[in-house]
Amino acid sequence: MQKSKVETKVLAEALTPRQIVEELDKYIIGQFEAKRSVAIALRNRARRQMLDADMQDEVAPKNIIMIGSTGVGKTEIARRLARLVEAPFIKVEASKYTEIGYVGRDVESMIRDLTELSVSRVKTEQTETVEEEALERAEERLLDCLFPMPRNLRTKTPPRPSEEEEDVDEQIHEIELDELDFEDEFGFPFELEPDEEDNKALEEQRQRHQKTREKLGKRLRNGEFENRPVEINMKSRSTPFVEIFSPGGIEEMDINFKDMFNNILPNQTKKRRVPVSEARQILMQEEAEKLIDMDAVINEAIERVENSGIVFLDEIDKIAGRESRHGPDVSREGVQRDILPIIEGSTIATKYGAVSTHHILFIAAGAFHVSNPSDLIPELQGRFPIRVELKSLNQSDFKSILTEPKNALVKQYTALLQTEGIEATITDDAIDEIAALAFQVNESVEDIGARRLHTIMEKLFENLFFDAPDLEKDDVTIDAEYVTGELAEIVKDQDLSRYIL
After folding, report:
1. What are the tens digits of pLDDT across the range 341-353?
2. Where are the beta strands (DSSP E) in 74-134?
3. 3-state SS string over 421-486?
């Protein structure tokens, strides 16, 4: 069966597994197996969308569980994926959730949060498409504030009188009704149309006002009034905060009450005096919201969540039950049983409508220091068919992390010193020494992976950062001798290194 151009475009625009791995290699050292598994899973999302509708429903996502100690790159892979893929993506910690009946976050809130993020992203995309028109409307409103049209030029008929004037006019109307030739829709007399000369004068004034407005518009677009204060009317809606405990969870009830109050309370406006530059952004946002079809935005967002959504479930080992060792852990196992239907596939009620989780990809991660993946309930284990074990980092990996990634720590710290006008040079032997110290401390104290490098680098540059504004020389060389002088004593003293590093 020949695929449509739209379906073919989905696969053509998606990154290949090799491209995904190459992008992750720019920021994460090693862990090829984990990168490979994630890349294949992401590519399969695009492949599934090219299948026939019947087959699409049958292809379930192959969820992944990453096993490895802290600091080896599990969270970093998730963080970089969030920036790399266009699909709705959310990272959550399993330890934040509790089973129904306990105080804590409802497990279904992860899908609500994912939907909220998706709606926000689609809305941002739609806003960009109407940005030009919204800017034009915003500038017209700014011109109305900066150079309002006089009342006598807005209409040929005089404005409606006040209540006191209206009472007097009503009396005149009752007395002199027979003498009047016209009566307006409000039941009070108004003046006859001005003669042709008056009309001509008004038209000339309108033309002069329009020309002046056009000149001001050009100056406004050229940025000549950016710092000038202007008073604008903004939408203001204060929603009372109501928190209710219910079997459905705090979040769901809070959403319903917010929607209810927003529908009941009228839109109110408040005046704010702000610079033109800030006023333009405020008015652009208001005008963009008027131009965007929110129903279409919500439908698109839910479709993306259901077909391309990704949930990174971190710290899953913290909810692993250890029944064989310490007896049943009701709360932890209860969280697993609450998460299970979501991963299996269910329909979650959100404030934007029902969201199906049947084809959402779940990537779980955990250190599993005191528990094993086998401690998870069997049903949950079966929902993560792909398991990847991330390797602990060695001294060579630490050296690569310091220099190779796009955001390498050496590049970050030298850039920070450059802001003070100091060129810092870190020699190769210094990098070797830092990597060796990081590996040594991880072996002797506790293995926290690449995060140990952050602690050591911060301690190494502490004196430089403090003295940088007062240094007379413009260049600093950091070699192995400097590293040893700053850190050797701390590393040797086990108690001190345990406390500081």
Report:
1. 999 999 999 999 9
2. 89-93
3. CCEEEECHHHHHHHHHHHHHHHHHCCCCCCHHHHHHHHHHCHHHHHHHHHCCCCEEEECHHHHHHH
| Fold assignment, 395-491 | Helicase, Ruva Protein; domain 3 (1.10.8)
- How far apart CA 436 and CA 444 sit, in angstroms, is 12
List pLDDT tens digits, range 151-172.
766 655 444 545 544 454 444 3
CATH fold group of domain 5-127+298-389: Rossmann fold (3.40.50)
Cβ(339)–Cβ(94) below 8 Å = yes
For 255-291, how does the pLDDT look when each residue is reduced to its tens digit (9 = 90+)? 555 555 555 555 667 777 888 888 888 888 888 888 8
For residue 233, the cross-strand partners are: 271
The answer to whether 50 and 72 have CB atoms below 8 angstroms apart is: no
12: confidence class by pLDDT, cuts 50, 70, 90: low
Distance CA 88, CA 118 (A): 5
Q: Enumerate the domain spans of the chain.
A: 5-127+298-389, 131-156+193-291, 395-491
pLDDT exceeds cutoff 90 at 299: yes
